# Entry
Amino acid sequence: MKDLARAALDTAIARKASYADVRVMDIRQRYLSTKNGQPSQVRESRSFGLGIRVIADGAWGFAATDELSRAAIDATAAQAVDIARASALCKKEDVRLAPEGKIVDRWESHCEIDPFTVPVSACLDLLLKVDAEMRKVQGITLAETSMDFRRIDQLFLSSAGSEIHQLKTQTGAGFVASSFAGNEIQRRSYPNSFGGQHQIRGYELVEELDLLGHAPQIAEECVALLRAEQCPSGEKDIILGSSQVGLQIHESIGHPIELDRVLGTEANFAGMSFLTLEKLGTLKYASPLVNVVADATVAHGPGLGTFAYDDEGVPAQSTPIIRDGLFAGYLTSRETAAAINQPRSNGTMRAEAWNRIPLIRMTNVSLLPGKGKLADLIASTDDGIYMETNRSWSIDDRRYNFQFGTEIGWEIKGGKKTRMLKNPSYGGITTEFWNSCDAICAPEEWTLWGTPNCGKGQPMQTMGTGHGASPARFRNVKVGVAYSE
Amino acid sequence: MLNRQRAEDVFRKVLKWSTADETEAMVGSTVYSLTRFANNTIHQNVAEEGSYLSVRAVVEQRTARATTNKFDENSIREACERALVLARLQPPDPDLLPMPGPQTYRSLDRFDEETARLSPQARAETVRTVIARAEKDHLTAAGVFSSGASVTALFNSRGLRAFHEETTSEFSVTMLDSSSSGWAKKTSHHWSELEPEALGDRAARKAIESREPREVPPGKYTVILEPAAVLDLLGFLFMDFGGLAVHEKRSCLTGRVGSKVFADNINVRDDVYHPMQGGPPFDGEGAPRKRVALVEKGVVTHLVYSRQTARKVGAKATGHGFPLPNEVGEAPMNIVFAGGKSSLEQMVSSTERGLLVTRLWYIREVDPYQKILTGMTRDGTFWVENGEARYGVRNFRFNQSVIEMLRQVEMMTPPQRTAGEESFEMVVPAMKVREFNLSSLTKF
# Structure
């Protein structure tokens, strides 16, 4: 494949492209799911193709094909240059890229048990047992389970001489119990909504999740929600479970720090950002105990945003985003870094597949842990609500006004978790909310969650992102907002 | 791109390698190009060409699927073998039906050669005129202009042969001022129907007229929802019209089929043959799509059914199933809302106090049975008073039951083909709705 990739580069350069990079991607997926005691999806797919991105006449062009003959590759490279020349008809100035050195390397993500070697029958057997365990609980009307394995084999070549081969294995698994009665539907998921937990790991993740062991409790909670009291409306202190903190980070920190949004290139679809350039280094984003990093390095953990090099060939980095509450950094690309006169991209450009261009995407945008256990945090809360596992999520197109719902909540009174609450929701304005954070739990409560379904770009691309978080408390938050009249 | 003959050649190779009891092959290909602009310049410009073969094997009442994007002999053989291996590893599925035999389909002409071949230069020239419109009023334009073609073919070993080709094009534009924005979008099988300059002008006028937005307190208001806003709300309702969703009690229509759920003026059907609709005349198993009346005078009269669901619940299949195997079952994907005879201008002129909403954003389901949705207004929200749109206002978050909303519709325009960002395209009207719950404000 390297020869074909190099041929694509040679064709682009021969046609006067000033820069070109090529990604060849071979993406293999296995998806297994069950529903009410039967396998519901058992499928495998493989997608193998090449995309070439060029700058010609000072503007961008990109073309992709899955026909991997020499003639098709040449035609695709020529098409990319032709498209770039068309882009130049509407350019204001030439594209500038922050400098990046030549890299020749190979990297493979760590995987103890290759999920593609685990017999499908064993996976289905486990899922069907989990499914059966949920349905043992009276009142469960729908039991669903799933496993999702991906292997992404990617070769990157650039006209600057880089040759980077990366091989990533991704695993995800989880289950959902649903119960319908009267005039309501309640759901409980484990270990998270969005198909459970997802990481750059192997089947060992599935084993660690102990899906079977958690099925009875989750199913019982689902049915109990039908009888639970409605989450009250008003201002309360809230403690969010770590996966919900993860999604709160994703929506109200991860997206607004994308520099392409800030600079307006996502204005028509995903939107822009309130984090305009003068706020860098000056905005009090959060309370002083909040520290957030965007960390794609292996040292941060096996998150969906972990890699060795991004899709521009920039090495993985750890970038401070919020330092002691102060806004400290954006997610950048080579082009956007140059646009704000930063010396180098911090390496966040990723593409969903061979037929998509790389965009600025969250890597692992994580809240660094604080002190204490969740139990201690609850014990120190006089009047509040503990909320767990996301059910709905929405935020405006500049990332100020957000609203989240969770699957379950519990009232906290006098330092004790008391009655269960159904339909919990809360909302607010991003910086007000993060400035109300007064406690973040310790490293032992910290989990690197995977969000596999982050959408951005036109044509739409879905990307996995990582969010490390431990439970955290926020003071005087509007709760019950989704149901209040 | 594939043609019918090439797709049939691929299927012949599938049959050569498949040893399953029954074999189905979906064969498709796409050519697609998209020119993206922002800050009054083209900043992304992409093209792709790709194909797929998806083989479904059935063996001893078990089924599974394997997909590849390579059509060489080895890849086809491997896909056939993997589908069979995966099928064999499962317990038997008592609900699995034999594949359907040969079917007859109504031909739908949804292909335009010019759209399929539209050049990046032609797209760039069009974008340039819209950018010029922005610059005339010192605005900043962002948007997309896309065009492409796709082929979908479905074959099975019982003799079913289905083939559909279609072109698509889209122009979407956001015009930005320092304190406001406006948006417009259109899609068509024929790029010549997109009217990019008119869309640019409409978005520009919205941005200009909503400059320096004022703050109106949250509350329940009469709202005039332009078609894109209606579309994106309704998009969260129609998966609930699947027969399996009701059978499994995950639909908001559980216990409501046959009942009056909406007001008298709500009439909805699913109709792939409507001239403003798109898509093939067959479903994921090759069953011919039927027209289905979903809501008549506010009563939920019919659901849609795949073959499997139909047998399970004792109904007739309507040709709305997704490719097997799947969790969802079926859904109506060609919604046609009956609408009314009012114009948008009449809706505004008849409103004493209310809001005009251009589009909505980041809509999510808050409550699956009450069908409460939350989301934001975006890109042109106006205060209407004494029959006139007076000024732009800051954007709202809403928390609104769609079921309740469809009991409060005062006026509707005739329906039109509409594209939003949160849902598949539909033929829907603009609506004037009472008591719409705008629950909080944002900062712009």
